[in-house]
């Protein structure tokens, strides 16, 4: 008698689920992608909305994208191909696994035609894989890894803003040219840090400088005192840190505490939000490479004023780059006449593009690396700061053709 | 050689934070039997409070060193009264879990209110630059951190050995039943002792504010290292917590200086070794399993 | 001084809940005491029809889930459920809180991923490989850890898990380090629908999860399981009765690690991804949270807890709400303070009482 019960239970279960399945609506196997997906263009924004990069990009990037949509509609009016444009956004919390899941969901469930932003290299690589699998576009703004245009490059992925090459070519070479010839590099021992160490060593030595030490630190880490001592022990002119985010703030604070007056601090990766959170005096005099600065010229300022009116804060390069990526995507859709991924990709590859973010911009067809002018900047002293977020003094413009590295041998599209 | 002295100083300075916070953790465990998972969050609260007070009320570092621990003392007492006390009669694992939950809430509350990029904190006047001691340039801040932690630990030690409440704390730590049997109302001291432990964590936080990024997450990995510290020192031992704190700081510093790949694992290897071979810790008494 | 998860001391500050804090009213086989004195509803060996109804409902839900919930999320719920059940096997039935179980979930995720990526074997084989790897590392860890109990056990497991996390970070050539192991294929005998569509993949993989849950259930409802409960309640007595307590603990630890590894392997294949997050202590914390939320010592509580936490996180992430930790932490605090039986445990007890009351009235 007892032995029949489990069999009966399973039978009920199977029938029940088939019945339920027949009624189910929300899930189900994914439909094949349509030609013009659901009569609307869906822009997906996937970034960090609650963690370390929230202020860098975060929810305000949605505003930037909305500004792009507005400008697109104003430019093309009734002739716009994309009549209905929607934005969907999600928080990946800087975790690659969440980014992976959210990207899949955006492409499949929310019918996103393109995903934008995605800071944090590991997350970006995950989304690049998804873009390749789902055959939909991914324009990365926030991540640094050159693997996006290297080993993980694919037809649907574009790297829009900065990468480790740009940072090294900028800060590294320029600092050497300014007299900082002898370096000690302190880098976090993971893929990004190792990448930065390699790029910076090559750039410094390429510009005629020498790197005395490359010191690996654990990642993450909040106590750099011993590493700073080691770096300083050979008396370099420049100590460079490749730490990012919270680790960078720790490093800078501890570097300043160490009181090494004759040594300059070079920062591999720095955002305007880091200056804001640490305070200008902690960073005073530091040179770094910025992809875009709001107070650089009148055009940027005008856009930054529009941005400030909507968000009450000044834009970072990420906001400007997301605006640019969204705008250029929409214009590519306009040119292609459809939002079909392959057609749009053709309208982006090899094109020369210009907007407030992309100065002398070009989409390199071989690896989908977007080239544009970059800027060597220096953090102002406290007295020089005239208004909120006015932290940078642009020392030089690094032209687009010099700012980025050559096409990687690892990229096989 | 001078580098070695630098590393030693750095190790003792970092160890000072661990020692102070671990002292709080050990006192709480000794008297209440609670392993306070939220100790790291309280350390973070101390740093955040210092940063906020500086920003809003222009309270300087030296004043914050006194004010913030008092604030956290109140916070600790509130935590005990509202949450911890209900589970004191149960298996200590419940309070371990409870304080874990509380730490999640505290960290997220700070994130919501102050964001994640970290709060700025100016270098306090007088702690800049270097001191010239015996021909070596030593960071003033680190010398201060080191000396200050020693002094506070010493003061706490005096309180524990020379005052009545200190005696009660030590007695309860050793044997709560017997202490009660001797007519001492241990229960009356539970709340203040918890508050005191939290205050010590907060003090460590204030000390850290000029030196570390003041972010909502700064306590999350800190608490894991604290666990290693109190286990190495002996969960029930107050002296052990302090010694182990400085020891772990040194291990970290020397590890980072001479064998960076192993630096992070070293502390946990040490912890595992202690638990396996000398389970009571370096200074603790043997637990009856 | 360290006692198993029950309270014997009732003096002191009042406990808010009215029911005694005795975990042995969980799914212990052979029946247990209830308030009404009737054979309990959920007795393991019982002929109770309700039990089979619940089982049928559970199976129906498991099989129909991807129709209502986005399939990858449904797969996550299933994986976390098995993970939580593996933790409950240790916590609720043996009285050992492991705060480092992510070591097994995560290392299996990586092992599975590496097997699938480099050898292209069908994913069930890769997952099996991951599971065996997790069990292999659980042997030394378990052997060393079970010498301690209570909080010490929790801390030792935490320490070992941290070591594995750092080792995985160091071996970044193998594991991908911070970037994680990307692009893990879902190879399944060339059946394209399973390999590309997460909906069909769910059905291919859910069998593995159900197998794991069944295994846990079998362990609990077996003589071995009874010894575990005896060890939980009074290790000294169990030892006096001649049971090699440490050996039993190691065995259940390895079994639990295997189940956690099975879950981790499914998770890795489902996401096509294994990251250091899977080894991080916060993942260990999350699964403990899920287990407690569902109900310690209830086994099925893990399923409930996993569903609640996964869907809550997913919903919060999509709605842009910033306080996931506040919500989860608050729910957790409330559960630990007031509903120590967890969601499932409390619901089941209420159901029990509701059914007992009319019976009582009928007397």
Question: If you had to describe this structure to a student in words, what would you say it looks like?
Answer:
The complex is a heterotrimer of chains A (413), B (289) and C (363). Chain A has 413 residues and is of the alpha/beta class. In chain A, strand 1 (41-47), helix 2 (60-76) and strand 2 (85-91) form a beta-alpha-beta unit. Chain A has 14 helices and 15 strands. With 289 residues, chain B is mainly alpha-helical. Chain B has one domain (2-219). Chain B is 73% helix and 3% strand. A two-stranded antiparallel ribbon of chain B has the order 1-2. Chain B is globular and about 55 Å long. The model of chain B has no long low-confidence stretch (mean pLDDT 86). Chain C has 15 helices and two strands. Chain C has helices at 49-68, 71-94, 102-119, 123-145, 150-170, 172-175, 192-196, 198-220, 223-233, 235-240, 245-271, 281-294, 301-319, 324-338, 342-362; strands spanning 181-182, 273-274. Chain C is globular. The chains are: A alpha/beta (413), B mainly alpha (289), C mainly alpha (363). Chains in contact: A-B, A-C, B-C. The A-B interface holds A 50-52, 54-56, 189, 215-218, 220, 222-223, 225-227, 229-230, 233, 246-247, 249-250, 253-254, 256-259, 273-274, 276-279, 281-282 and B 3, 6-7, 10-11, 13-14, 111, 115-123, 127-130, 137, 139-142, 210-213, 215, 217-218, 221, 252-253, 256-257, 260-261, 263-264.
Strand segment count of chain A: 15
Give, in spatial order, the strands making up the sheet with the most strands of chain A.
2-1-3-4-5
Identify low-pLDDT runs of chain A. 21-28, 30-34
Q: Tell me the count of domains of chain A.
A: 2
Count of alpha/pi helices of chain A: 14
Shape of chain A: globular
CATH topology of the largest domain in chain A: Rossmann fold
Please give the largest β-sheet of chain A. Answer: 5 strands, parallel
Q: What's the alpha carbon Rg of chain A, rounded to whole Å? A: 24 Å
